[in-house]
Design brief:
This protein has about 350 residues and is of the alpha/beta class. The protein contains 15 helices and eleven strands. It has a domain of about 220 residues: Rossmann fold. α1 links the parallel β1 and β2. The longest helix has 22 residues.
Length: about 350
């Protein structure tokens, strides 16, 4: 690796990407090239840093934008992706960005940067439903849930990385609760699901620290999680989320939440990556505090005043509950694993 290695970073304006971006800037000894889509948000975000980075605006859907990356990179951190729930609403877009664009980028790097180290961000969702067997190891089968477009796209992209000619490593990131929102998708996760979370900052630090540990990581998959101090059940997490939002207890009927076909669990081997990269510094309390920052005192007051209306509106949007009360046999089987 050169004295001042050239790094290509995609997805630098995302939740983890921003943290990776800022930490790379703090190190001072990299030539940082950022590839991102031009939006009002990204223009404003990058404006203070324009003199410290080389910024390339492009769209991963447009393969000519990827092929224009015809220089030599030492390290590539590929974080750009269409995430859930957007991926589920737009499966074609998820396939284009998460799978096809990743393949095109890899092929381009094989030509221009054959010695590059390719760090890929994957997800715990590739393991599929682990409700009955929540302790997950990296050698466990990759079995995304049938309707999980995002997980399926990530599994395909992992294969493209694994079979590439580049040096590579894949980090399967656990739940990042900072982006959890009160929406209809909150009902897709069974209440008894075990969740091991990780703060965006800790996840980002793993990618940054990986730059100096390429030999130990090369050609391997790793589970990236926060560890024992970042574990909670979904039931307890919802209770905490509703409390910090000012909504009281999450009082919903039993059939509001699915009982199968979702992902998450505890990483049985998550300490392996941390023993190499030493990236953990936050615990579950820190993750909850990050969520709490989204709820200003005024917002909490408003939510407390409107809590019954908000809960009623949320319940009306619950797909499992709607499937149950409308006796939709196919969806009841999918969400609950039973016939009606």
């Amino acid at each position: 690796m050169s004295v001042n290695p050239k790094i290509l970073l995609t997805g630098a304006s995302g939740t983890i990407g921003r943290e990776v971006f800022l930490r790379l800037l703090d190190t001072q000894h990299f030539e940082l090239v950022v590839f991102d889509k031009r939006t009002v948000e990204t223009v404003l975000f990058y404006r203070p840093f324009r003199n410290r980075i080389r910024l390339i605006y492009g769209d991963l859907i447009n393969h000519s934008n990827i092929l224009a990356l015809n220089e030599k990179f030492d390290i590539v951190i590929h974080l750009a992706a269409v995430l859930s729930p957007k991926a589920d609403r737009h499966p074609g877009l998820a396939e284009q960005i998460n799978v096809t664009a990743t393949k095109v980028l890899i092929k381009q790097l094989e030509k221009t940067s054959p010695d590059a180290f390719f760090l890929y961000s994957s997800c715990i969702s590739v393991y599929g439903d682990r409700l009955k067997n929540p302790n997950i190891s990296v050698d466990d089968p990759v079995m995304p849930c049938d309707n999980d477009t995002y997980a399926q796209s990530k599994a395909k992209a992992e294969q493209a990385v694994q079979t590439s000619k580049l040096r590579w490593s894949v980090f399967r990131i656990t739940a990042i609760l900072k982006r959890h929102k009160l929406s209809k998708f909150m009902f897709h996760m069974p209440l008894d699901t075990r969740i091991e979370t990780c703060s965006p900052g800790d996840a980002a630090q793993a990618f940054v620290n990986a730059i100096n540990h390429q030999a130990e990581l090369n050609g391997k998959f790793f589970n990236l999680g926060g560890g024992d101090h970042c574990r909670i059940t979904y039931r307890d997490f919802l209770n905490t989320l509703f409390r910090v939002a000012g909504l009281g207890a999450p009082t919903f009927p039993p059939r509001a939440f699915a009982t199968q076909n979702y992902h998450c669990g505890f990483y049985a081997d998550g300490d392996v990556l941390n023993s190499i990269l030493h990236f953990r510094s936050d615990d579950l309390k820190a993750c909850i505090e990050e969520i709490q920052q989204r709820f200003t005192p005024f917002r909490r007051f408003l939510f407390r005043f409107l809590q019954h209306t908000i809960k009623a509106n949320l319940l009306r949007r619950s797909s499992p509950y709607r499937a149950y009360i409308t006796a939709n046999k196919r969806l009841v089987e999918y969400y609950f694993g039973e016939e009606i």
